[in-house]
Amino acid sequence: MSELAPSILSADFMHLGEQLHTLQESGLKVLHVDVMDGVFVPSISFGMPVIKSIRSGCQMMFDVHLMIKEPSRYIKEFVEAGADSITVHVEACSDIGETIAAMKKYPVKRALSVNPGTDVDVLMPYLDQIDMVLVMGVEPGFGGQKLIPDTLEKVKKLDQTRRENGYDYLIEFDGGVTRDNLCEIIQNGTDLAVAGTAVFRGDIRENVRDLQEVIAGAS
Fold it and tell me: pLDDT tens, 28-74?
């Protein structure tokens, strides 16, 4: 069954530890951690020190999404901080193959991401070398945006490609995920649905319960 991956970009950092505990108690297994550098995307979020500080008190899988220029420079540091999976943007890498090679040096899951304006065909030479593809449903860098409907066609194509070729990569979808569109996102082939505002705005337990019910019905 598909899974929900809350994005801590939308969390209340004054109460982050408490909120992470709530997510774990709700049975969630994956935590999406957005890292932004103010270069590849306009916004700046956080880096290794924050990840390291929450790692000690959180048993969830850390799905670290690097929205940073030339991410290969920092793979080692993010692994040491506690990343279980590292996602890099093809648009941010001058050499995608070398970046994948850099990730292969460490015990970490490897993932590539594409922005809304990038064709998934750019991923085709690398699909047998990675563990996951992240499809952005909005332009990266800001929370609270509305999903761009055409991006779901990329999920469909990637799902078809892995079935036809026997690939085992996961498909993750990030951006504009709500209770109203989650069913469609899952039914198109998404394995991991990233949600920020939909999880953290209001009652987290209730939000997670509602979203999990949608996933169960769609899977």
Answer: 999 999 999 999 999 999 999 999 999 999 999 999 999 999 999 99
The pTM is what? 0.96
Question: In whole angstroms, what is the distance from residue 79 CA to residue 74 CA?
Answer: 9
Q: Is 210 designated active site?
A: no
What whole-number distance in Å separates Cα of residue 93 and Cα of residue 68?
9
- Tell me, yes or no, if 174 is annotated catalytic: yes
**In the block, which residue shows the tokens 């079935």?**
163
Catalytic residue chosen out of the listed positions 119, 121, 128, 174: 174
CB-based burial of residue 48 (10 Å sphere; 0-12 exposed, 13-18 middle, 19+ buried)? middle
SS3 26: coil
Looking at the chain, list the stretches that DSSP marks H as alpha helix, in order from N- to C-terminal side: 16-25, 48-55, 75-81, 96-104, 151-165, 182-187, 197-200, 204-218
Pick the catalytic residue from 12, 34, 128, 180. 34
